[in-house]
Specification:
Layout: H1 3-31, H2 41-60, H3 66-69, H4 72-96, H5 104-134, E1 140-145, H6 149-158, E2 165-171, E3 185-187, H7 192-199, E4 203-206, H8 215-225, E5 229-232, E6 245-249, E7 252-256, H9 265-301, E8 307-313, E9 319-325, H10 348-356, H11 363-369, E10 373-375, H12 382-391, E11 404-406, H13 408-411, H14 421-436, H15 440-456
Parallel strand pairs: 1-2, 1-4, 2-3, 4-5, 10-11
Antiparallel strand pairs: 6-7, 8-9
Length: 462
């Protein structure tokens, strides 16, 4: 199964689940007509809520992620995890909005039937995948030209679950073989086409370039004349274990180390508009009363200013003033030393503000001003930027994006005090992943996870 097929499968599975949920609603309403009052409006609202709730939780837990749908076990676990929160959302809706007009029997039948239909869909998907894997006409026979480190890595990837590829063997000149191989060495390179016809090969992967073996130019042409697809695999030895992206300026290929969705101006505009709208709403409806209230409490708790403005590293490593509610007693090491567990600099009110993340709320002013985004890598103190950039080579990549109030690393528990080099390397890994995989819906997912974490608490928030 190639990536294009898997991406289409994501949409198919998502739509199939929504259809199943709505089928359960329709069938249950039909068979329990006697229990349903003539006014169906509450049931209509309930149905709409169920659809929205499933869309939100499936997005939140990435149920249909490419890495999840290729494994039945992972896909099922993700579904179960999402359904638990879906169930809680439904209970919240029924209890707190007092939907007394909805029949209890109807509710029980629906909430029992939905998980059954969802897992039926997973078993159906499993059977379809099993059927596809058993159909020879859906499997591509391939040979690999060259037996080298690149060819070995290619074999490892082609053997992964979900790829309908059958490796016949290698085509390599026998004098170049110095070890045993997992697949047979079929023939010298010049006889590749003969072997392909013999084994019904539909694809050739060459780990050797025509500049190394000019005979490949003729082989490429002959392969296509025989309806065999020829694929050249360049060896970027310097970039080993890194994904290379190829763009074109007319016919000239341009290699880049990473794909950044926010390089696209339309995506930057979309993200900036969201930042402006979201931060304006927070400032208008929350900060407008939160700032006066907390100002009084901070003054009563300890001497010093209400706000703490600290210089931090922003996009392209430009310095900006990051605004926070002051949570510490005024001290000389505030711009150099991180907060630690049981830090005696933190005030009594400050402990509450830090644990609840309320100390970060003034940063929505930074967002409105344009120095920060709602979601992005967390900005660090200037001293720490200098220190961490020496510890890990990829650290400065996180500054390709505007810093955020919350980020992908934070919602995955990577926050608080940095105790060792692995802590910062892991955060950088998550921040770089965010930059390379940004989407509007990923930002929404991180916002929802941040809200959940605020209520759930975090052991590293101190």
């Amino acid at each position: 199964m190639n990536n294009k097929f898997l991406k289409n499968l994501q949409y198919i599975l998502f739509i199939l689940d929504l259809l199943s949920i709505n089928t359960v609603l329709f069938v249950t309403q039909y068979f329990l007509q006697g229990l349903i009052e003539e006014d169906h409006i509450q049931y209509t609202y309930f149905g709409i809520f169920l659809n929205i709730a499933w869309i939100v939780v499936s997005l939140l837990f990435n149920v249909y992620g490419l890495n999840h749908i290729t494994s039945f076990e992972t896909f099922s676990k993700k579904t179960l995890h999402a359904f638990v929160y879906f169930f809680l959302f439904v209970i919240f809706y029924l209890f707190f909005l007092r939907q007394l007009a909805i029949s209890r029997t109807f509710t029980i039948v629906v909430l029992t039937s939905i998980p059954l239909t969802l897992f039926f869909n997973r078993f159906l998907y499993l059977l379809i995948r099993y059927y596809i894997k058993k159909q020879n006409y859906l499997v591509s026979n391939i040979v690999i030209i060259g037996y080298n480190n690149l060819a070995k890595r290619l074999v490892t990837y082609l053997e992964e679950e979900g790829r309908n590829k059958r490796i016949i063997g290698f085509c390599e000149n026998f004098e170049n073989i110095k070890e045993l191989s997992n697949y047979p060495i079929l023939c010298p390179i010049e006889d590749t086409l003969v072997v392909c016809k013999e084994y019904g090969v539909s694809e050739i992967y060459s780990t050797i370039g025509p500049e190394q073996n000019p005979a490949l130019y003729d082989l490429i042409e002959l392969a296509e004349q025989n309806f065999i697809r020829f694929r050249l695999i360049p060896d970027f030895g310097f970039f080993i274990n890194k994904q290379i992206h190829i763009d074109y300026i007319n016919e000239i290929p341009i290699l880049t180390l990473r794909k950044e969705p926010l390089e696209d101006i339309s995506n930057r505009i979309k993200k900036r508009l969201f930042d402006i709208i979201f931060s304006s709403l927070v400032i208008l409806f929350l900060l407008s009363w939160l700032i006066p209230l907390l100002s009084i409490l901070i003054w009563l708790d300890s001497k010093g200013p209400v706000f703490f403005v600290q210089k931090r590293s922003g996009k392209d490593n430009k310095i900006f003033g990051c605004i926070k509610f002051r949570t510490m007693k005024t001290n000389a090491s505030a711009n150099e030393k991180q907060a630690t567990k049981n830090d005696d600099r933190i005030t009594l009110l400050g402990k509450f503000l830090r644990r609840s993340n309320l100390d970060e709320f003034p940063q929505f002013i930074n967002v409105l001003m344009g120095s920060m985004s709602v979601i992005g890598p967390r900005p660090h103190m200037l001293k720490h930027t200098d220190t961490y950039s020496r510890l890990t080579s990829h650290y400065m990549i996180r500054h390709f994006s505007k810093p955020g109030i919350s980020g992908w690393a934070q919602v995955n528990g990577l926050r608080g005090e940095v105790k060792n080099i692995d802590d910062i390397k892991k955060r950088v890994e998550y921040d770089v992943w965010y930059i390379e995989n940004w989407s509007f819906w990923l930002d929404i997912r991180i916002i929802l996870l941040t809200i959940i974490n605020i209520f759930r608490g975090n052991k590293n928030a101190y």
